[in-house]
């Protein structure tokens, strides 16, 4: 099982270590540093590194490496999932997960880690259980604690810990009872030079924010449940009901949680809401290249595309770019060769464009690779897959809750090749 | 106010100040001080000097303070064992606390303190907590048993905690069940032979019920445990599958992959005609695809596993090619894996798409990735015949880009395409030749030279091209030099008139000016061939080459089956069985897929079979042909030390032959070896062999005699098993066994000629092995072996050969040559042939050695169903050189103390406990101690074989 955890910042300093079994010397991280040195970028450090006596499994998030040390055959996904859970917990506790924040809250971090694993076995990883055991720090609480002498460690057994619904504590009370659901879809797509779709798929999630008194039992049904053929559920969802009736029946966790994530695969036709026209050309003889991009809407079901952002990693040979946008702002970093253009909203009457020239190194041959354009955008009030919630019913409690459903479509990894 | 204040130090000396604060009367100040101590500890500062002061703060009703002190204790108790005792009382008291949280915390913390003295006090509270009314305490206690086992395994067994733990599997609370399973699995890992997780349909049912209700992590433990179970028939397999399938929709990817493992394994038992089989296949694809939208680290592990799954069952993902398309900002490790899977899924239906993608990748920035993409195009050409032409034209397009590394890589793969489709794409040679000057990598240069040599007759200026390489001959790498030599000889054979000078030049460069023995030898061989018999030379050098196939990069089927059982584990990430990398080889149990047809006999799960059962069931230890060849290349060519001098020469010649033959097949990927087998066999080999025959046969007769007479008194001899089936060896079947008679080891072989032609010129060679086994005399076969004839030979062995650790330890790789070919096989020898006659240790010495060997080297085994009493056991073992030194009777049990010595001087000490009782249930408890603990497993097998026969 998981032996130890080291937190390493991008400059290669170990700033926290935690051992759940015997202490493993931090020199074991030297193998990790070696791999880090070999990898050109932090993202490219391999997640599984063997050493003579241990295995190092790492994840890289928020510019911090979380390196777990294991000694025996342990499912690596188990370890990596757990590490991601640690990051999520930190984020949940402190708002952000960064080196200074972790250092500022080192004792809480340590207490939380101790609660999350016992002898390397996961103990409590649900954040609402953890929060009952160890209260997240707030300025108010620190003040109150100093005055009253109370602590931020709970002395009651968390109620959810052993019940059949470990994700919900008992005795929840709210004055305003409300249940909000966000249907968020991200489009991952690769579009080729000529504008045709090579692959496109939708990663969707339904995030819930439920603040309901007591033990409510909810049922959520869809207009078109057939779209959901590849789903993963929060443990609260009753799988049998889904199998037989295609409705989601569950006792919700308290607060915010991810109810469902789903995947609409490349085999279904995925509507692509934007197009990019581009003309990026280098000439062998000249040290100037032409650059032109236009972004336009396509299959948006009448909704506006907003938050459009275009980024592109230009080839090394490009020294500088002189461009004029028809709207928004753009920057080009001559060191990292990263071009970014913050477009904003797309007005279908007046399509935004970015035009100009690129100056290349004089005398150098034209670059071998073509830049890939990365696109971000948002469309409110639309789930691009067509998924629609039919109704939400509540059983088990008497009051009438506020209900709300919001839809949103975003670009995930949306890439246009040139 | 943040915790960073705990790091600020004053000039006075931090420790001093903390000490004062810890002893403060004010509660708040105390807590702050402990927090400072913990903060220093987390960044690796040594604050162990404060131990007594911190422990003093432990007796408190403030839970946070208590937890903090516990954190400190866990870290430092080991360095201050005497002080740690001070804490014991509080722990014991806390275990009785009315608050279950405190009870659990106390037992949890105690288990983490790795101090012997404390563990003694742990037993009683732990026993109570295991039966606690509160499931939270029970589940914590279950994990504590695993902790304690890690510290002191014997104590856990003696106290009966393992049985209590087994009972917890039937606990009413699913979380307790999950933790009990997790703890048992961890304990079982260090005790491969013990049958801790004894699964039966009832316990499986309990696990499946708990599976639905426990936490995600518990589900992983339970699923991994289920994967070790072998259902008794296909109906049971199907019902388990049905109950596991919902796990595929879990949000935790580790749960999903563990469920995939269970399904992939049990699916093997289902009939393909079943409707359910098809449903299951369909259900497996979506979760696997979903794994690819997770974080890159998860994707990587998932991809490594998908790589195995598509090799085993390509039908699952055959329509999902697009999800493996690479995004430009994927991390490199994800990109490379995706590429690999794309090639495996490539088929005629999707090849156009794949090629378009690969071509796109070839213009990316990352050099490693670009290279692999270019190689992938070549692999597609070889895999999908219809696409070859398209691939070649794509490669030509890429060559036109003139990007140096793309061109080089393209030339290397075009060479392979030529090998697969000879005489089809020669038109591109002209384009290739244009890029000759830009090639600077040895592999690309070698490939180009091979192409020129192979098609010398179509290239007008082939001689000029090759000559240009010749100028810098000595600066080239060996690969290029060898290739150049062969290419020029080919050229000469094709166009003898114009190239005589060139060939002489290269031969003299290779033979006279080079220090490289390979190059020199190859040069000499060509030279002799050309000067003695140019016609034969032509036959040899320009012989038809076997076609290469796409299968080369597939994982060997038996290994693949084993790896399928390890889906989701490290083994699946490395694509190696755990035995290849688990430290010390301990706890290595080969897993295998269950057989498709369910029989009543298969109740005993195959997982429990020991790794080194008698030969005959061991096809899985035979490495892939490639590995074997590689190993045999390492063959020590030195002559054996003993043996008749006449024989020595023939063995040596035999060895050379082997190498020649081995090299020949090894060169499968290269243009060609030194030549066909008939060329390599030097005529001399037969002569000394036949000269040596009379002596040898006399000797072997003698051996036959002794083995005939001595079977009763000598060490146990296993029946002969087939080592090399006739199918694999062009009609030669070899079966054999090992014997030890009066201090000499021999290998009894039975050679049967099942082919239609006469076999002659037998020779044998061993690869280096763990105990240096080597033939002491050459293989003596009196006369040519005619079809359907069988000959029995006893080959004397010694143990003075070269040593190399093998896996498993008793693996022996053998090469046998005859006039037809060279054949490789591997076998496992029973370890008792290595037990020497002077293995009796002095009593005092035994006692001292037993104490001297550390406890972690002790291995425990059980021998079941052995209805023998102490005397019978003792005498049976004595005949195989396991000597009983002392015998004791403790509480009605006979204890035998025994010793044995291996040929390499390793002593193994044994304690054998015979529990009398119902004769058919007698269980022998064997404890082995040895300085080299890796032999224990094999010694145990030897015991078992000897005692049961």
Automatic annotation (TrEMBL), chain A:
GO biological process: anterograde synaptic vesicle transport; intracellular protein transport; synaptic vesicle endocytosis
PROSITE patterns xref list: CLAT_ADAPTOR_M_1, MHD
CDD domains listed in its UniProt record: AP3_Mu_N
Compartments where located: Golgi apparatus; Cytoplasmic vesicle membrane
InterPro entries membership: Adaptor_comp_med_subunit, AP2_Mu_C_sf, AP_mu_sigma_su, Clathrin_mu, Clathrin_mu_CS, Longin-like_dom_sf, MHD
This protein's GO CC annotations: axon cytoplasm; clathrin adaptor complex; cytoplasmic vesicle membrane; GABA-ergic synapse; glutamatergic synapse; Golgi apparatus; presynapse
Keyword Methyltransferase attached: no
Keyword Transport: yes
Membrane topology value: Peripheral membrane protein
Highest taxon in the source lineage: Eukaryota
Start and end residues of each MHD domain: 176-417
Keyword annotations: Cytoplasmic vesicle, Golgi apparatus, Membrane, Protein transport, Transport
Family as reported in the entry's similarity comment: Belongs to the adaptor complexes medium subunit family.
Protein name: AP-3 complex subunit mu-2
Species the sequence originates in: Microcebus murinus
Gene expressing this chain: AP3M2
From TrEMBL, chain B:
Location, primary (coarse class): membrane
Entry keyword annotation includes Electron transport: no
Pfam families on file: Adaptin_N (PF01602), Alpha_adaptinC2 (PF02883), B2-adapt-app_C (PF09066)
Domain (Beta-adaptin appendage C-terminal subdomain): residue spans on this chain: 835-948
Disordered: annotated span: 584-625
GO molecular function, one term: protein kinase binding
Domain Clathrin adaptor alpha/beta/gamma-adaptin appendage Ig-like subdomain residue range list: 716-826
Keyword entries, A-Z: Acetylation, Membrane, Protein transport, Transport
Low complexity composition-biased segments: 594-611
Membrane topology: Peripheral membrane protein
Subcellular location: Endomembrane system
UniProt record, GO biological process: determination of left/right symmetry; heart development; intracellular protein transport; kidney development; vesicle-mediated transport
Cellular-component GO terms for this entry: clathrin adaptor complex; cytosol; Golgi apparatus; synaptic vesicle
Keyword DNA-binding on entry: no
InterPro entries named in the record: AP_beta (IPR026739), AP_complex_bsu_1_2_4 (IPR016342), ARM-like (IPR011989), ARM-type_fold (IPR016024), Armadillo (IPR000225), B-adaptin_app_sub_C (IPR015151), Clathrin/coatomer_adapt-like_N (IPR002553), Clathrin_a/b/g-adaptin_app_Ig (IPR008152)
PANTHER family found in the cross-reference section: ADAPTOR COMPLEX SUBUNIT BETA FAMILY MEMBER
Stated family: Belongs to the adaptor complexes large subunit family.
Protein known as: AP complex subunit beta
Organism for this UniProt entry: Microcebus murinus
């Amino acid at each position: 099982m998981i032996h130890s955890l080291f937190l390493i910042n991008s400059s290669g300093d170990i700033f926290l270590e935690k051992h759940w079994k015997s202490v493993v010397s931090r020199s074991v991280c030297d193998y990790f540093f070696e791999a880090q040195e070999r990898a050109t970028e932090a993202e490219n450090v391999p997640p599984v590194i063997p050493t003579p006596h241990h295995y190092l499994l790492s994840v890289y998030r928020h510019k911090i490496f979380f390196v777990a040390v294991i000694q025996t055959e342990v499912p690596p996904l188990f370890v990596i999932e757990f590490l991601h859970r640690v990051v999520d917990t930190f984020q949940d506790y402190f708002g952000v997960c960064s080196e200074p924040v972790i250092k500022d809250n080192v004792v809480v971090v340590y207490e939380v880690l101790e609660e999350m694993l016992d002898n390397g076995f996961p103990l409590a990883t649900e954040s609402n259980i953890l929060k009952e055991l160890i209260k997240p720090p707030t300025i108010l609480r620190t003040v109150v604690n100093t005055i009253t002498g109370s602590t931020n460690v709970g002395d009651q057994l968390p109620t959810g810990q052993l019940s059949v619904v470990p994700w919900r504590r008992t005795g929840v009370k709210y004055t305003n009872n409300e249940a909000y659901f966000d249907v968020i879809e991200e489009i991952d797509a690769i579009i080729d030079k000529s504008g045709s779709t090579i692959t496109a798929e939708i990663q969707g999630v339904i995030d819930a924010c439920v603040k309901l008194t007591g033990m409510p039992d909810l049922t959520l049904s869809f207009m078109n449940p057939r779209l959901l053929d590849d789903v993963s559920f929060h443990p609260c969802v009753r799988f049998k009901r889904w199998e037989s009736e295609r409705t989601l029946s569950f006792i919700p966790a308290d607060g915010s949680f991810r109810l469902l994530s789903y995947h609409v695969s490349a085999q279904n036709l995925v509507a692509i809401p934007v197009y990019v026209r581009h003309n990026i050309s280098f000439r062998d003889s000249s040290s100037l290249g032409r650059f032109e991009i236009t972004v336009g809407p396509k299959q948006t079901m009448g909704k506006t595309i907003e938050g459009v952002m275009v980024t592109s990693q230009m080839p090394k040979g490009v020294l500088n770019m002189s461009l004029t946008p028809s709207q928004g702002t753009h920057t080009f970093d001559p060191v990292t060769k990263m071009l970014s253009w913050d477009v904003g909203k797309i007005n279908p009457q007046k399509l935004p464009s970015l035009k100009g020239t690129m100056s290349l190194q004089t005398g150098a041959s034209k670059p071998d690779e073509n830049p890939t354009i990365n696109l971000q955008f948002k469309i409110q009030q639309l789930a691009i897959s067509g998924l629609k919630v039919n109704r939400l019913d509540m059983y088990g409690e008497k009051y009438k809750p506020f209900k709300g459903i919001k839809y949103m479509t975003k670009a995930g990894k949306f890439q246009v090749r040139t | 106010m943040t915790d960073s204040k705990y790091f600020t130090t004053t000039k006075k000396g931090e420790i001093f100040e903390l000490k004062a604060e810890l002893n403060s009367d004010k509660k708040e100040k105390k807590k702050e001080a402990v927090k400072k101590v913990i903060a220093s500890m987390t960044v690796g500062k040594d604050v162990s000097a404060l131990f007594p002061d911190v422990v003093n703060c432990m007796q408190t009703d403030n839970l946070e303070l208590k937890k903090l002190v516990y954190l400190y204790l866990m870290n430092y108790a080991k360095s201050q064992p005497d002080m740690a005792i001070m804490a014991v009382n509080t722990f014991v008291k806390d275990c009785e606390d009315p608050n279950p949280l405190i009870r659990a915390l106390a037992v949890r913390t105690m288990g983490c303190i790795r101090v012997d003295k404390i563990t003694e006090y742990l037993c009683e509270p732990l026993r109570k907590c295991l039966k606690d009314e509160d499931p939270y305490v029970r589940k914590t206690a279950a994990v504590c048993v695993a902790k304690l086992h890690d510290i002191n395994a014997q104590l856990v067994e003696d106290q009966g905690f393992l049985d209590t733990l087994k009972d917890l599997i039937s606990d009413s609370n699913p979380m307790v069940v999950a933790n009990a399973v997790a703890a048992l699995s961890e304990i079982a890992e260090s005790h491969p032979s013990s049958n801790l997780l004894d699964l039966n349909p009832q316990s499986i049912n309990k696990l499946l019920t708990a599976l639905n209700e426990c936490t995600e992590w518990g589900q992983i433990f339970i699923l991994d445990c289920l994967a070790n179970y072998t259902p008794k028939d296909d109906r049971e397999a199907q019902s388990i599958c049905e109950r596991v399938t919902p796990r595929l929709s879990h949000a935790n990817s580790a749960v999903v992959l563990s469920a995939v493992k269970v399904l992939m394994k049990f699916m093997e038992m289902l009939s393909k005609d079943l409707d359910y089989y098809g449903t299951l296949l369909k259900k497996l694809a979506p979760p696997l695809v979903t794994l690819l939208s997770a974080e890159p680290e998860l994707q990587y592990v998932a991809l490594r596993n998908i790589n195995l799954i598509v090799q085993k069952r390509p039908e699952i993902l055959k329509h999902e090619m697009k999800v493996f398309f690479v995004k430009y900002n994927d991390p490199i490790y994800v990109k490379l894996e995706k590429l690999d899977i794309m090639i495996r899924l490539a088929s005629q239906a999707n090849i156009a798409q794949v090629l378009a993608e690969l071509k796109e990748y070839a213009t990316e920035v990352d050099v490693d990735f670009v290279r692999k993409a270019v190689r992938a195009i070549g692999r597609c050409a070889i895999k999908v015949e219809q696409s070859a032409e398209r691939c070649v034209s794509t490669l030509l397009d890429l060559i036109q880009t003139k990007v140096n590394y793309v061109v080089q890589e393209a030339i290397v793969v075009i060479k392979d395409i030529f090998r697969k489709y000879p005489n089809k794409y020669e038109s591109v040679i002209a384009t290739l030749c244009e890029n000759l000057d830009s090639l600077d990598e040895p592999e690309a240069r070698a490939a180009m030279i091979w192409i020129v040599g192979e098609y010398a007759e179509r290239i007008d200026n082939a001689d000029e091209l090759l000559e240009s390489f010749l100028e810098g001959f000595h600066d080239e790498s060996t690969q290029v030099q060898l290739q150049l030599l062969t290419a020029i000889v080919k050229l000469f054979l094709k166009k003898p008139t114009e190239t005589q000078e060139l060939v002489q030049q290269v031969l003299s460069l290779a033979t006279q000016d080079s220090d490289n023995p390979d190059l020199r030898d190859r040069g000499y061989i060509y030279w002799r061939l050309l000067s003695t018999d140019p016609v034969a030379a032509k036959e040899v050098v320009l012989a038809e080459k076997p076609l290469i196939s796409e299968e080369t990069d597939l994982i060997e089927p038996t290994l693949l089956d084993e790896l399928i059982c390890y889906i989701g584990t490290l083994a699946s990430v490395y694509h190696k069985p755990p035995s290849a990398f688990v430290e010390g080889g301990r706890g290595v149990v080969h897993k295998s897929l269950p057989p498709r047809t369910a029989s009543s006999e298969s109740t005993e799960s195959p997982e429990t079979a020991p790794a080194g059962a008698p030969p005959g069931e061991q096809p899985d230890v035979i490495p892939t042909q490639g590995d074997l060849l590689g190993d045999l290349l390492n063959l020590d060519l030195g002559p054996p030390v003993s043996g008749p001098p006449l024989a020595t020469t023939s063995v040596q010649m035999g060895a050379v032959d082997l190498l020649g033959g081995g090299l020949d097949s090894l060169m499968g990927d290269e243009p060609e070896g030194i030549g066909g087998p008939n060329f390599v066999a030097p005529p001399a080999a037969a002569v000394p062999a036949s000269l040596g025959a009379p002596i040898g046969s006399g000797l072997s007769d003698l051996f036959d005699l002794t083995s005939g007479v001595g079977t009763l008194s000598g060490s146990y001899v296993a029946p002969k098993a087939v080592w090399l089936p006739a199918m694999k060896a062009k009609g030669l079947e070899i079966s054999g066994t090992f014997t030890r008679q009066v201090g000499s080891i021999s290998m009894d072989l039975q050679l049967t000629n099942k082919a239609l032609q006469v076999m002659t010129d037998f020779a044998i060679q061993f690869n280096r092995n763990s105990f240096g086994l080597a033939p002491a005399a050459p293989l003596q076969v009196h006369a040519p072996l005619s079809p359907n004839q069988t000959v029995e030979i006893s080959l004397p062995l010694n143990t003075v050969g070269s040593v190399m650790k093998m896996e498993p330890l008793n693996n022996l790789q053998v090469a046998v040559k005859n006039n037809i070919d060279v054949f490789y096989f591997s076998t496992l020898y029973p370890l008792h042939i290595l037990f020497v006659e002077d293995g009796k240790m002095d009593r005092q010495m035994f006692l001292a050695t037993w104490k001297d060997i550390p406890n972690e080297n002790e291995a425990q085994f059980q021998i079941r169903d052995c209805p023998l009493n102490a005397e019978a056991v003792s005498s049976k073992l004595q005949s195989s050189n396991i000597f009983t030194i002392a015998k004791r009777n403790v509480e009605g049990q006979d204890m035998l103390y025994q010793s044995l010595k291996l040929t390499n001087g390793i002593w193994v000490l044994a304690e054998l406990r015979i529990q009398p009782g119902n004769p058919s249930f007698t269980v022998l408890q064997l404890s082995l101690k040895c300085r080299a603990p890796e032999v224990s497993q094999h010694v145990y097998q030897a015991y078992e074989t000897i005692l049961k026969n």
